[in-house]
Each structure stands twice: as structure tokens, then as C-alpha cells.
Design brief:
Creatine Amidinohydrolase; 4-stranded antiparallel β-sheet; 3-stranded antiparallel β-sheet
């Protein structure tokens, strides 16, 4: 969507705060022995307290309130009985609907002991996110965002999973434009003042391709290596964008 009023901004900020609170609560519970279902229930409790709903459930009838992906799973992992183990990389992806507005964010949580290569992968994803946000200004293009993300990720020795991308958001979970994590500055869709999008580097140690899991939802790295995923929802402006899910 494109923000049309101060009311829209305030409503999106409220949705973003719910997402940020849910992520913080889930992150605090990530530890060996916890199940992904327990983390999902924690998010559901935050949603219920604020009167929010799960956007993936509303839009796609997703089996969980949130998406929780572990190790080589990149996105759309279904919460369940899986227990977190020492050394896991746990990706928490939360999208909330609150009074007709949606916001979306993700974090990757490494479980100690953290292998050096996993720490590097997480750092690359965070750096890619920061690089993408820095260039997401009115007058730029989705290609400029993608180019910035990929350049920073590859500079740190990792690769973006090119089949997965950010997206427009606001009134529904996935709106135009697509915001790939690779591209060429000046190409792609224009970024206009007030446009609401997600920027979400989804990266791996080596491969740029993915494979589908057997559950019909989960997407994993093609080579079985680990992945990292970070994301914020932003409002594009002429200056620095407004991050709604910080």
C-alpha cells in the first residue's frame, strides 16, 4: 500500500509494535529443549493481548500463527513438536494484522554454542538488511535495494537465495512490488514516497537456490546448508525510511 494519511502511519506503527513485541517474546524463549510450538504459542498470546491476528493464517490458512524455520529451512517452517537443539539457527518470522493493517518482520536466533560460520552468516544477513534499508528512498528502485543487499551479503562471503524476496505490504500480507535481494540500481519497480514494503535478506552459506519441503510449506536451501533470515517493514520516504517493526 501507499500511506495516504497520518492515520495510516499510526495504524501501521501499531501493527509493527505488535510484531516487535511478539518477536522479542519468542526470542527470549529460544533455548535447547523448547519446541517451536511453544514459541508459536508465545506469539499467539501477544497477538491476543493486543487484538491482533496472524496474517499468514488469514491470507493462506497457514498451520501456525508464525513461521519458524530451523537450520537449512529458510522460510515458512511450520511450528510443531520439533525441539530446539544446541547450535541450531532458529528463524522467527512474524506477520500481524491489527485493525486492517499488517506488518512483517523476522530475526535469526543462533543457539549457543554458536559456530563461527553461523555467526558470520547472521552478521551478513543483518548487514544486507541495513544496506537495503539505507538505499530505500523515494526515487530509487527495487533493483537498487536488491543490489545493495546482495553486494553486502556477498562481500561477507554468503549468498542470497534468489527465489525469495521482500514485498509490498499494508492491507494484505503480500502486495506489489516484489523486492528481490538482488538486482541492478535503476532497474525494477520505482520506490515512491509513502510506499510500504518489507526488506528481507534470506541468505545461505553457499547456494542461491532452494528446494521445497515435503509439508507443502517449508522452503529450504538446495544444498542443505544453513540459512539466515532477517526482515523489517518500512515506509519509503524522501529521506531515511521509517522502520515500522524496530
Amino acid at each position: 500500500m501507499s500511506v495516504g494519511s497520518r492515520k495510516d502511519v499510526q495504524a501501521l506503527l501499531a501493527a509493527g509494535r505488535v510484531v516487535a513485541e511478539a518477536l522479542a517474546r519468542m526470542r527470549a524463549l529460544v533455548r535447547p529443549g523448547a519446541t517451536t510450538a511453544e514459541l508459536d504459542r508465545a506469539a499467539a498470546e501477544v497477538f491476543a493481548r493486543h487484538g491482533a491476528r496472524s496474517a499468514p493464517q488469514l491470507a493462506y490458512d497457514f498451520p501456525g500463527v508464525t513461521c519458524i524455520s530451523v537450520n537449512d529451512e529458510a522460510v515458512h517452517g511450520i511450528p510443531g513438536s520439533r525441539r530446539i537443539a544446541p547450535g541450531d539457527l532458529v528463524k522467527l518470522d512474524v506477520t500481524a494484522e491489527l485493525r486492517g493493517y499488517m506488518a512483517d518482520a523476522a530475526v535469526t536466533v543462533p543457539v549457543p554454542p554458536v559456530a563461527p560460520q553461523d555467526a558470520q552468516l547472521c552478521a551478513a544477513a543483518q548487514a544486507g538488511l541495513a544496506a537495503g534499508i539505507a538505499v530505500a528512498r523515494a526515487g530509487a528502485t527495487t533493483g537498487a535495494v536488491g543490489a545493495a543487499v546482495e553486494a553486502e551479503v556477498e562481500r561477507r562471503g554468503s549468498r542470497v537465495l534468489r527465489e525469495l524476496a521482500g514485498h509490498g505490504i499494508g492491507r494484505t500480507i503480500h502486495e506489489p512490488p516484489s523486492v528481490p535481494n538482488f538486482g541492478v540500481a535503476g532497474q525494477g519497480d520505482p520506490l515512491t514516497d509513502g510506499l510500504v514494503i518489507t526488506i528481507e535478506p534470506i541468505i545461505s552459506a553457499r547456494t542461491r537456490t532452494t528446494r521445497r519441503g515435503g509439508d507443502g510449506w517449508t522452503v529450504a536451501t538446495a544444498d542443505g546448508r544453513r540459512s539466515a533470515h532477517v526482515e523489517h517493514t518500512i515506509i519509503v520516504r524522501r529521506g531515511r525510511p521509517l522502520v515500522l517493526t524496530a
